[in-house]
Write a structure and sequence with these properties.
Order of helices and strands of chain A: HHHHHEEEEEEEEHEEHHHHH
Radius of gyration of chain B: 21 Å
CATH superfamily of chain B: HUPs
Largest interface: A-B, 21 and 14 residues
Number of domains of chain A: 3
Largest sheet of chain A: 4 strands, mixed
Number of strands of chain B: 13
Structural class of chain A: alpha+beta
CATH topology of the largest domain in chain A: Butyryl-CoA Dehydrogenase, subunit A, domain 3
Strand content of chain B: 25-35%
CATH superfamily of the largest domain in chain A: Butyryl-CoA Dehydrogenase, subunit A, domain 3
Number of strands of chain A: 10
Helix content of chain A: 40-55%
CATH class of chain B: Alpha Beta
Structural class of chain B: alpha/beta
Number of domains of chain B: 1
Oligomer: heterodimer
Order of helices and strands of chain B: EEEEEHEHEHEHEEEEHEH
Helix content of chain B: 25-40%
Chain lengths: 381, 264
């Protein structure tokens, strides 16, 4: 067993840390206060190769492993969870399933554009009546005249406003549950797909979250992703990777909270001494550091398992559960440690507090993660 | 253009002051357990080399000296940024050498690399700030030398370089071969490597040469000529002084004081 990162991992981590410090951190607060899509940052991220981290070189990617992806995502989220949300969706929810389940032609057509940042992608699974119970989705896909026609409504789609490519899950068979679902690669330019409501959110504000409306949306037959009726397993396998990405996001937020607390506790003086001299502060910092490290190790393990091609559903759920709850808890502690200054926008910890909450919700709530883990241990009931 | 860039690894200067320590036995900075980075101006030198290669073609060789065990990250970074190949001179004794001795080892290594048009190094290292390696290399290699260079352009048969000076900058024409020591400038901020290039850097050639195999190195037994007697941390003191007179007199006195300190 070896806990040391290799030379490439260290260099990638240092590179992205520097990129985040120079290009993201200076505008992170502004992107939160006056939300907009950070096109210039995403372009720079694409130039560095951060939009197709695990995509092989033949499709323009860097061919990294999943652990490198975790390192990158933590560094990005350390600076801005909103920017990182855009990047992790592109990597884990769009490039990854195309890579795993796409045909050679689909990979050739879409991956270079996604990796190069020419196109942004989004993942359309959730529906108004299918959230945690994602496999009850109602969007329909019917075969007509040699093509597919999709009808339905998708909500909470990250990147949906800017995306040129949507991975849409729809029911192709008249059976309930996962077995009747198929996945489709739907280009935004196809007739019948449009952006509906654009949501206003508590945090991660610079990433768009929208409704995608499919009204007799015509999709060529060759844009079926994976086999017909296999969309359920594709969605779930994709989420294993997606959850590792969210765990890394949560790690970044939690680490940001800790680092701000350490800096503040050294500078802020009360009762004639820096507040870091008080045991209450020391213990808060110790607890934060310990829980973050525990979450990081779980996240690394999940990524490592997935890199080995092993099933990691429970481990990814554990990583996401612990990391997201750690982020929320650490941000909560940070706001308290900062006192009044933690509640105002002059300091970043209130942003961490708002950003952290989503990590307990999207790509499976904490409750769903517990369901996944318990099924793994107790068996499906 | 055949370019060799000398890269020194130093303890990350961004580390908090509490992590800085001096080993009283060796009179050297303690490096164990501290992250090492390429010395600041050496990275600028590498960037200048890569920009020149991008414009006129050629080859960039990264040359580093130090214990082989820690040279990996610096070499990988240089190769990922765009250097074509790397040579690591393995100095098993660690990093105790000063500039005069380092220059002799680097000279031997450059001679063994063979052909070169241009050798670039940082104008000073982030730890010892001796500023001697560049000029000593030029002397030993019988090459032209310009220090504190920020920009380089190729001309017919030579280079046009910008040398930073107190009053502005000098434009100098330089014949090749040349050794230039490089300072920072807004045009030579080190690029970030693409993650793909970090991965492919492994395929680029890296040679490791034991220092003892290079002729003319300190292993030959010559006295280095420079000895470090003592190294100490500067004492930091804070003093507050009230300038006398009315506001105008205070401004004049303050301005003069800041000029004397070269802060204005």
């Amino acid at each position: 067993m070896d806990f040391e990162l290799n030379e490439e991992h260290r260099l990638i981590q240092a590179t992205v840390r520097e990129f985040a410090a120079k290009e993201i951190l200076p505008v992170a607060a502004e992107l939160d206060h006056n939300p907009r899509y950070p096109a210039e940052i995403i372009a720079s991220a694409a130039a560095l190769g951060l939009l197709g981290l695990t995509v092989p070189e033949e499709y323009g990617g860097a061919g990294l492993d999943g652990l490198a992806n975790v390192l990158v995502q933590e560094e990005l989220a350390r600076a801005s969870a909103g920017v990182q949300a855009i990047v992790t969706v592109q990597n884990s929810l769009v490039c990854d399933p195309i890579l795993r389940f796409g045909t050679a032609e689909q990979k050739r057509r879409y991956l270079p554009r996604l990796v190069g940042g020419e196109w942004l992608g989004c993942y359309c699974l959730t529906e108004p009546a299918a959230g945690s119970d994602a496999m009850s989705l109602q969007t329909r896909a019917e075969r007509r005249n040699g093509e597919w026609v999709l009808t339905g409504q998708k909500i909470f789609v990250t990147n949906g406003l800017e995306a040129q490519l949507c991975i849409v899950y729809a029911r192709t068979e008249p059976v309930p549950g996962a077995r009747g679902i198929s996945a489709f690669l739907v280009e935004k330019s196809f007739p019948g797909i449009s952006v509906g409501k654009v949501e206003k959110k508590l945090g991660i504000k610079c990433s768009s979250t929208v409704e995608i409306v499919l009204a007799d949306c015509r999709v060529p037959a060759e844009n079926l992703l994976g086999a017909r009726g296999r969309g359920g397993p594709i969605a779930l396998a994709t989420l294993d990777g997606g959850r590792i990405g969210i765990a890394a996001q949560a790690l970044g937020i939690a680490r940001a909270a800790l680092e701000e607390c350490v800096a503040y506790a050294s500078l802020r003086e009360q009762f004639g001494q820096p507040i870091k001299e008080f045991q209450a502060i020391q213990w808060a910092v110790a607890d934060m550091a310990t829980r973050i490290d525990a979450a990081r190790l779980l996240t690394y393990r999940a990524a490592w398992l997935r890199d080995r091609g092993e099933r990691c559903t429970a481990e990814a759920a554990m990583a996401k559960l612990v990391a997201s709850e750690t982020a929320m808890w650490a941000a909560h502690r940070a706001v308290q440690l900062f006192g009044g200054y933690g509640y105002i926008q002059e300091y970043p910890v209130e942003r961490f507090f708002r950003d952290a909450k989503i990590t307990e919700i999207y790509e499976g709530t904490s409750e769903v993660q517990r369901l996944v883990i318990s099924r793994h241990i107790l068996g499906r009931r | 253009m055949e370019i060799i860039v000398c890269l020194k690894q130093v303890v990350d200067p961004e580390l908090p002051a509490r992590d800085f320590a001096i080993d009283p036995a060796t009179r050297r900075q303690v490096r164990e357990g501290r992250p090492l980075v390429i010395s600041t101006y050496d990275e600028n030198a590498l960037e200048v080399a890569l920009q020149l290669k991008d414009r006129v073609g050629g080859k960039v060789t990264a040359l580093t000296l130090g214990p082989q065990g820690v040279a990996g990250d610096a070499i990988r970074l240089a190769l990922a940024m765009g250097a074509d190949e790397a040579v690591a001179v393995d100095d098993p004794h660690g990093v105790g050498l000063l500039g005069v001795e380092k220059a002799r080892v680097l000279t031997a290594a450059i001679r063994r690399i063979g052909r070169f048009d241009l050798v670039l190094c940082g104008c000073e290292s982030a730890d010892w700030v001796e500023r001697v390696v560049g000029p000593l290399l030029a002397e030993a290699l019988a090459a032209a030398c310009v220090t504190f260079v920020s920009r380089i352009e190729q001309t017919n048969g030579g280079l046009l370089v910008r040398r930073m000076a107190d009053e502005g900058f000098h434009q100098l024409e330089v014949r090749l071969p040349a050794v230039l020591s490089v300072t920072s400038d807004e045009t030579n901020r080190p690029r970030l490597p693409k993650v793909k290039d970090i991965m492919t850097a492994r395929r680029k050639p890296v040679q490791v040469w034991p220092m003892a195999d290079l002729s003319g190195t300190p292993a030959d037994g010559d006295a280095p000529g420079v000895e470090v007697r003592d190294v100490a941390l500067p004492e930091r003191t804070a003093r507050c002084e009230f300038l006398p007179g009315d506001a105008a007199a205070q401004v004049a006195a303050l301005t003069q004081r800041l000029r004397d300190l070269k802060l204005l």
